[in-house]
Amino acid sequence: MYTEVIKLNNENYDYAIKLAGKHIRRGNIVIFPTETVYGIGANALDEDSSKKIYMAKGRPSDNPLIVHIENMDDLNKISKKIDERTKKIIDCFWPGPLTIIVEKSEIVPSCITGGLNTVAVRMPSNKIARDLIKKSGVPIAAPSANISGRPSITSEKFITDEFFGKVDLILLNESTEIGIESTVIDVTGENIVILRPGFITKNDLENLLAEKVIFDLNISDETKVPKSPGMKYRHYAPKCELYLISGSINMQIDTAKNQIANDIKNGIKSIVLGLDNNRRYFENYLDLGNSDIDVAKNIFTNLRMLDIMKIQKAYFLYEVKSELDFSILDRVKKAAGYKII
Ligand code: TXA
Ligand code: MG
User: Fold this and answer.
1) Of 10, 114, 143, 160, which has the most beta carbons under 10 Å away?
2) Per-residue pLDDT tens for 199-234?
3) Given its phi and psi angles, is residue 267 left (phi above 0), alpha (psi -120 to 50 degrees) or beta?
4) What is the pLDDT of residue 235?
């Protein structure tokens, strides 16, 4: 397949968005940035177009896609009645990094919902994503733009290698702002349930609604089956062996030092990832920044850097101090295949 790649700038912007909209309307696939991660999108209302996404990603067909919309009319078309509680959530958090699971209407093909009678909907805040949906004139089904099982992509530099020849058009911009995928919540039951933690947190939702919000308890436990189909698959995985380390940060540093000393003895190329203030303890270190916001933004790029650097073993140093840290750790645990030392 011929893939056109456009690096967006002020001069080509209108042309590129128009072209991308045309591709979506014709049933083709377009990769575009959002505020969370890059997405790989197609017309959400057309079964054949959406099937092409599963092919390009190598994604299992029971794993449903998020439908990206630009306005509330789109939401009313693809869902059944939206209740007052959900309207309140939408007013507060959309456009933004929050995906809401609602009951789907007839026009949503069941192939994009993995056969479920619900649909995941998100109104992104990123201007490129919004302009693209508007120009396309249809909602856009878009999972994260990565080969299934690999880390999501937040930096333009990995997109072309992964998808050249597999999609019709790639729109490149700078790195995405948030860096981890949207929070996914299910509002169809009595309690609101968080199916995937993200930038919008449990506290954010509880403060708004003055009611208890619960986690799908199975999301961070490898032995349980989560409610969100996508959470059960191996995810975000770099090619190397990645480990989390248990204990306080000082204990983690000591353990990592011992591991690295052993690796050197055995001729294994290893590295430590963590916050900037711990880099002084290690010679080979990937610096994720100074705060949870930095780590969210940088984590997927650094997981991919491990492959480029041909690292064999990597150790992730981290303490959970905030709700965002918890969301980050959810990704890294999966990337590590739940290996903790
Ligand atoms: O930030 C994001 O959400 C990015 C950007 C591109 O918008 N998209 C993204 O899509 O992360 P994806 O497909 O990689 O993750 C969607 C998650 C999966 O875990 C999927 O199983 C879940 O949402 N999901 C989708 N529809 C669902 C449904 N009807 N019920 C439960 N979970 C659903
Ligand atoms: Mg994904």
Assistant:
1) 143
2) 999 999 999 999 999 999 766 555 666 676 666 666
3) left
4) 81
Helix, strand, coil: what percent of the chain each, to 5?
40, 20, 45
pLDDT at 277: 96
Which DSSP letter does residue 177 get?
S
Query: Does the CA dihedral 61-62-63-69 come out positive or negative?
Result: positive
- Give the 3-state secondary structure of residue 267: coil
For residue 111, pLDDT over 90 is answered with yes
pLDDT, averaged across the chain = 95
pLDDT at 326 over 90: yes
Pocket test of ligand 1: the residue of 144, 146, 199 to mutate, having most ligand atoms within 8 Å of its CB, is 144
Mutate to test the pocket of ligand 1, among 99, 111, 112 (most ligand atoms within 8 A of CB): 99
